[in-house]
Amino acid sequence: MNExxxxxxxxxxxxxxxxVLVTAGAGAQALADLLAVAGASRTLLEAIVPxxxxxxxxxxxxTPVKYVAQDTAVALSGCALARARQLAPDTAALGLAxxxxxxxxxxxxxxxxxxxxxxxxxxxxxxxxxxxxxxxSREEEERLISNLMLNCMAQAITLPDHLxxxxxxxxxxxxxxxxxxxxxxxLSNQEIAYFGISANGRILTTPPAAILSGAFNPxxxxxxxxxxxxxxxxxxxxxxxxTAVNADKPPLPPETLLNRMAQFAGRWPVFxxxxxxxxxxxxxxxxxxxxxxxxxxxxxxxxRFYQDSSQNxxxxxxxxxxxxxxxxxxxxxxxxxxxxxxxxxxIPPQFSHLFCPLPxxxxxxxxxxxxxxxxxxx
Length: 378
Known about the structure:
Layout: H1 3-14, E1 18-24, H2 28-36, H3 40-43, E2 44-48, H4 53-60, H5 70-87, E3 93-101, E4 113-120, E5 123-130, H6 138-156, E6 172-179, H7 180-188, E7 194-197, E8 203-204, E9 210-214, H8 221-234, E10 239-243, H9 254-261, E11 270-273, H10 278-284, E12 289-293, H11 294-300, H12 310-322, E13 326-330, E14 332-333, E15 339-340, E16 355-358, H13 369-377
């Protein structure tokens, strides 16, 4: 290792940001370099090398259209960020990923190329590198790609130093950045009403077909299984929505909101809005389906959330109905030890068609976010 590389990695280790690193096809030298310099335990939360297709698919949670492609690298980095949030929920973290195809011991018909992505709560940086095929040995291609990975990480954590890249005229390197923090700040400043982040890291500005809204503190399997069950039952994709402003709590700072949204990176689309009530959400997302649990449905139907006025409650439900929104209600085991569902709700007769049941055979999960936080902290 040369001194310039050692200095850069030392600076990375001295930065508080931690990383889950995933690499396949090339880039293992970047991992070796990070481990070779003292202080790696401050930086690396986990390193994963999913070389076989089975391991690759297992980490992603699906089989990609192409294993070596930009969207695949982005998905890997998103899953790595989500993993980092699980391992160190209170630590600044990022997901760094590379997928590549380079010189090997048999001739390859396709191009030699690499796609590198680093996804952190506030932004996504992507490098796409197409190499001059046959111009380098495997070791030289590996070193170039590994240096690019280290540079990508350095850029993400705003380090001033970068490693030189031995690029040829026939090589092609492009870089793009998506700024999630800007959207979160615009939402906080009330400059936009909502925004979303797709599973492949793109900013979404049009409403989804259905949403499951919540605080997601933390995201758990109950949320994921409910969204999947609702989507299967209705035959439509269900996105998540992090509520930046809750009717019962102070607004979330942009950085907290982005950390909550990072739990979905690489796997599921997630939206954020400053609409604390379902009436306000219906105005933002007219015509879509709201997926809710039984306890949320109870609150929707309580006059105390409408200035203790049944008239206000009925007016809100009437407007939601006129906007074309509906509620899909999942049952839940309550504190009384009984499983409660739609039939236990006090729904005014004129709004009975506004609420539909999600059958228990499609979904039943009896742990709450509050219980999960208690278990995690005990």
